[in-house]
Specification:
heterodimer; A: 151 residues; five-stranded parallel sheet; 17% strand; B: 169 residues; alpha+beta; Rieske Iron-sulfur Protein; 2 domains; three-stranded antiparallel sheet; 9 strands; elongated
Chain lengths: 151, 169
Amino acid sequence: MKWTVHDVDMYEKEKQYIDTAVLPLLPLTFSERAKLVAADGEFMQLITNEIERQLKGRLFLLPSFTYFLSETLDACVERLNDWTRELKEAGMSHVFYVTTDQKWKEAKQELSGALFFLPSVPFEHMDESYKQQIVHEQTSKLLNAFISWWM
Amino acid sequence: MSENKHRVSRRQFLNYTLTGVGGFMAAGILMPMVRFALDPILKEEAGTEMVPVAQVKDLTTEPQRFDFKVKVKDAWYESEEPKSAWVYKDEKGEIIALSPICKHLGCTVNWNGDKSHPNQFFCPCHFGRYTKDGTNVPGTPPPAPLDRYEYKVKDGKLYLGKAKPRGEA
């Protein structure tokens, strides 16, 4: 499910079945790394969208949790935990974070949701079929990680 | 006066020319507008086209997953939507193409996805199950059998069309 009128409508009807919120953690920057960070973000959107398509009956893909790279980790963690508390109060028993930003690794213990990493892939000069293959691989990897978390 | 019968006066000439040219100009402006307005009605309904998906000789009695893309038209906006199908041949050799979309809440089902219930389609979201022919297993969440794709075979290739609820396809 996505954050659209149609899906929210469905969510309200089928609330008891939708127990998982997926929150992509999307960094922003306008420094010289902007291009790389944007590429990772794009890759993550591709994958989370594909996962949403396959598991839309149980998970709610939320708009990304965005933060500037210059923000301190502690501030990010605090804000993210606030979001997570809000989601859990709304009835989401699982909250999954998906990110390519390695800095979250340091805070893994302090987070109240489950953290899933995606590798950052230099997509820019890759040819289309190879790109598709990578997206496909990473999608099924993450998909299986989600499913085994549920089991 | 008799000359006027055969010759066109300056006034008449200008009138004719202006009407003619004006008419063409008006038509030039109106035609595309009318065409645009009628366009969605004239076009065939989106999704009626059959898409080649697999070679018939590759099909087995075990369901296999085939991915394909369908052109979707939303008024003027055209995009490609990825779709999949579980295809196999039953005992009579007839082709069955099932849509992987769970009838419960729309997740994607897998063949043999659950080790404790082999030879069934399994939905990982709420553990819904379907037998090989797509019938929902009672006691699991799905309320209806999996949709079936309309299909045709041409030159050894399998073409799939729309997925329809069972009984219609």
